[in-house]
Specification:
158 residues
Length: 158
């Protein structure tokens, strides 16, 4: 995982096991199924195939972050100060400060909408990114920093 001063709440390297195993439902959207190397997590993710083409057997690095800012903003600035600092982290005209998105190829913004406890130690986190869904299943301690109802960014790179 990442350091305490980072906005990244989860990260790992995943190997794609399957894509659209239940059939393709949409033209530009596919669903990938992947297993992580380090934490033995299972991920199911809907993604745009034109923007981020991947194939079975390929590895991708995935991170979940609470903000695109490179630092957590906790060094005495307070929540309001962090919001002001984060205001220009990403701008479509490229004039904002460089954030985490510079290190990744595919970024989506969404919300954690559900936690599902499978057994005592395994949980599933669900997030929606404008209708593109993520489910992440694994040991609850690896997902301790993911908070139900919080906005979240998913960042992917090959």
């Amino acid at each position: 995982m990442s350091s305490a001063s980072s906005n990244i709440v989860f990260d790992d390297v995943f190997t794609i096991n399957n894509i659209d195993k239940d059939g393709k439902k949409f033209d530009r959207v596919s669903r990938l199924y992947a297993r992580s190397r380090n934490y033995d997590m299972d991920m199911t993710l809907d993604y745009n195939t034109e923007v981020f083409p991947v194939s079975k057997g390929q590895t991708v690095t995935m991170a979940l972050a609470s903000s695109l800012s490179r630092d957590s903003g906790q060094a005495g600035s307070g929540a309001e100060g962090a919001d002001v600092e984060d205001k220009d982290v990403w701008r479509p005209d490229g004039k904002g400060r460089k954030g985490l998105e510079e290190d990744y190829e595919y970024v989506m913004y969404g919300k954690v909408y559900k936690f599902d406890g499978g057994n005592a130690e395994t949980v599933t986190v669900y997030a929606s990114f404008g209708g593109l869904l993520l489910s992440l299943t694994g040991f609850f301690r690896h997902m301790a920093n993911i908070v139900l109802g919080d906005p979240i960014f998913i960042l992917l790179r090959k």
